Amino acid sequence: MNDSSASRVHGEPAPSRPARILVWDAPLRVFHWLSVIAFAGAWLTAESERWRLMHVAFGYTMLALVAFRVVWGVAGTRHARFSSFVRSPAAAFRYVLSLAKGRPEHHVGHNPAGAVAIVAMLAMMVVTGVTGWGAYTGNGESFGDLHEGAANAMLALVVFHVAAVLVSSVVHRENLAGAMVTGYKRGAPIDGIRRAWWGIAVVMTAAVIGWWWTQWQAAPQPARADRPVATDTGRPAHGAGGDDD
Question: Which residues form the Cytochrome b561 bacterial/Ni-hydrogenase domain (predicted)?
Fold first, then answer.
């Protein structure tokens, strides 16, 4: 007699062997990495007048991505829905406590502590984007200060999120960052999703890249040192591209 079958309680279904299952759909993964690029781009262009249009474009992109995430959090696949992972503060505390004890609760999708970070980052993306819009449209210096403070808070959340992902990856012995690239994790086949929804992901990516490209083209270009400077007579000024002979 098989020992494993004999040890199970009568009537209890046989546990499924862990398999490689699809957990994160393509639109969710595209949202995640486009958000990373948009925030990094906005941060790097924050102090540049030349790249101001790109900075604004990255900010608008973040707002649009949040709007998509809210919709996808209601109408998306199982593990993308807010109802599947947003839990009470008590649940988040229990999860952190299980990590501290070395017996972490396992969640196929987002864990309760990760859910807190996700909701906080989505909210801060909105605050950062709205205050940035206020500063860009000239509605007072106070918006600029709020925008800078929100951006710093967002950066702190991102650092915390990355650190938490690294710790959870070690504790759970699974590559969580890699799963957000491939969409796959180890789990029971019944917990996987059936479709990746690549069509939506492709449209999202094309729309964002197209938007960034138009703003890149509209950004002011630096003056070339070897370009002749025209005078009132239409002839190049002396020493500005013409021969000195």
Answer: 23-183
